[in-house]
Each structure stands twice: as C-alpha cells, then as structure tokens.
UniProtKB/TrEMBL annotation:
BP term (GO), one: riboflavin biosynthetic process
Signal peptide (from-to): none
Domain of life: Bacteria
Pfam families the record matches: RibD_C
Protein name: Dihydrofolate reductase
Segments passing through the bilayer: none
Phylogenetic placement of the source organism: Bacteria, Pseudomonadati, Bacteroidota, Bacteroidia, Bacteroidales
Residue ranges of every copy of the Bacterial bifunctional deaminase-reductase C-terminal domain listed in the record: 6-155
Molecular function per GO: 5-amino-6-(5-phosphoribosylamino)uracil reductase activity
Length: 173
C-alpha cells in the first residue's frame, strides 16, 4: 500500500494563500520544494483551486511527467489527451483505490487535506511556516478534531521552519 503525503506553506497567521489566491508571499525557494517532492511520488493529487493555480501561473509544466488527479465537482480539463484525470464521482473512494498502488503527493488544497485527515487517509504532512503575516486569506485547514500527529522531522532554512508529521491512530498519554 502506498502513502499520501502533503506539503503546504503556511503564514504565521494560518493562511495558505492571500484572499485572491496568490502565493507571492512565499519565497521562491519554498515554492520549488513541491517539484522535488513530486520526483519521489508516483502521482499528484490536488483540489480544483490548486489545479487552476498551477496552470494559470506555472502552465502545469512542472507536473507533466506523472499522473495528476484533481478532486472537483466538475471535469473541466483544458488539456485533452493529457495525464490529468478529474475525480468527480465519489472522489474519496477513488483516492482509496489510488493509495493501494501509488505514492501520492498532495500540494495546497486545504479542503482536500481536511477531508483526507478526517477520513484518516493522509499519512504525512510537511508544513512550512513562512515568517510573514498575510492578514486575510485562505485558511489552512477545516475541522479535524481528534487527529493526532507525531513530529518526525523539524528544520529551519532562511527563516522558514519545516515540520514533518506522521499520522497516529491515537494520542500518547
């Protein structure tokens, strides 16, 4: 069975993007990290907003080498004959099937991360804390009460703190 791992940048006040969805407050060195993580994964899993951002800002060039799965209410693939699949019908069932055979990387996608955590499908999350206050924006995560995580790695680089956590079934006493 594969694993689902996530990487997400987070402002000190808990946002993953500004109100207009921009990431210009994230240093370029941090924005490059998902590309290197993608090399170790067999596919990419994103929500619709992250998919839109990738193709509006990066032309999707970085992620054309492996399958991309987009969790969305509708299939609006603008690149026919590509490696992009939209998971519109029972997407969480599809993700469970993908996890059986793939190492999956999730980037961005706060709503998707919330659902993966609630259903105990996310195995590892790396949070990069960027030393900036965004003020207003897209929040990091929804309600995930009762989800326990173990810190397995922590390091700093140019003021940013990278903390990697593995999912735990229950809290240690």
């Amino acid at each position: 069975m594969g694993q689902i791992k996530s990487f997400i940048a987070l402002s000190l006040d808990g946002f993953i993007a500004s109100v207009d969805g921009e990431l210009d407050w994230i240093p370029q060195s941090v924005r490059a990290i998902p590309k290197s993580l993608f090399e170790n994964a067999s596919c990419l899993l994103v929500g619709a907003n992250t998919y839109n951002y990738l193709f509006e800002h990066l032309d999707g060039q970085v992620y054309k080498t492996k399958p991309i799965y987009v969790v969305s209410h509708s299939d609006y693939n603008i690149l026919p004959n590509s490696n992009i699949s939209f998971l519109t019908e029972k997407p969480l069932d599809a993700i469970r099937r993908l996890k059986q055979h793939h190492e999956i990387l999730v980037i961005g996608s706060a709503k998707l991360l919330t659902e993966l955590i609630q259903l105990e499908l996310l195995d590892e999350i790396t949070i990069c804390h960027i030393p900036v206050f965004v003020g207003k924006g897209i929040g990091f995560i929804g309600e995930t009460f009762g989800s326990y995580w173990q810190l397995v790695k922590c390091q700093s680089n140019k003021g940013a703190i990278f903390a990697t956590y593995n999912y735990k079934k229950k809290q240690d006493d």
